Amino acid sequence: MSTILIETRPARPADAPALAEAHDESWRTAYQGLIPGPELEKLITRRGASWWETAIRRGSRISLLMFGDEVAGYTNYGKNRAKSLPYAGEVYELYLKPEYQGLGFGRRLFTAAKRDLAQSGLTNMVVWVLSDNEPAVAFYRALGGRTIARSTERFGTKVLDKIAFAWTR
Ligand SMILES: CC(C)(COP(=O)(O)OP(=O)(O)OC[C@H]1O[C@@H](n2cnc3c(N)ncnc32)[C@H](O)[C@@H]1OP(=O)(O)O)[C@@H](O)C(=O)NCCC(=O)NCCS
Fold it and tell me: Secondary structure of 83-141 in the HEC alphabet?
């Protein structure tokens, strides 16, 4: 019998190639048919291993969900970027490879990010999600997020609606 360790931990520079791969796979499946193809390609291509390595070395907060030696998913987070919203923290991204979705790992990554933000004094937080990304909208609702704002984002010629969910503790 073998035992597989499942844990969340901060990303290290050596994780950059595996992180780039997890980003590529998860974004491709989440956004195919939603974000126009050429725009999606651009978003994925610009996030190669060197982009991730630089982000990690600069101290961006990135947590990984490790399934044994494999990067199953990641979340990155920090200060809220939308100054018009009265929330201190923000989860910028939270993505799992398709084969690791629906197993409770999203909740685990989200909880780790929220705890880490709270420990640095960012006790309330927001997440933006595209309205048409229905599984993600359902996920954030299941985690107790409250809708607090709506906006739009342009991807090439397509404009998509997005929703901000908030948590106060
Ligand atoms: C969205 C995502 C992060 C959720 O992670 P996950 O591991 O699949 O979700 P979990 O198994 O931890 O589920 C946590 C809760 O959300 C609910 N949930 C998750 N996906 C759901 C879905 N598609 N429909 C309805 N509820 C859902 C679960 O039922 C669970 O609720 P419960 O604890 O009350 O039973 C993951 O599916 C993913 O990476 N998707 C693609 C990328 C993406 O869209 N990221 C978000 C961009 S903002």
Answer: CCCCCCEEEEEEEECHHHCCCCHHHHHHHHHHHHHHHCCCCCEEEEEECCCHHHHHHHH
Query: How far apart are the CA of 79 and the centre of ligand 1, in A?
Result: 23
Beta 125-130 vs 89-96: how paired, if at all? parallel
| CATH superfamily placement of domain 6-167 | Gcn5-related N-acetyltransferase (GNAT) (3.40.630.30)
Kindly give, in sequence order, each residue whose CB lies less than 8 Å from that of residue 145, ignoring residues fewer than 6 positions away.
127, 165, 166, 167
pLDDT in tens, 87-125: 999 999 999 999 999 999 999 999 999 999 999 999 999
- Evaluate if pTM is beyond 0.85: yes
Among 76, 139, 143, residue to substitute to test ligand 1 (most atoms within 8 Å of Cβ): 139
DSSP letter, residue 32: B
Q: Where are the domains of the chain?
A: 6-167
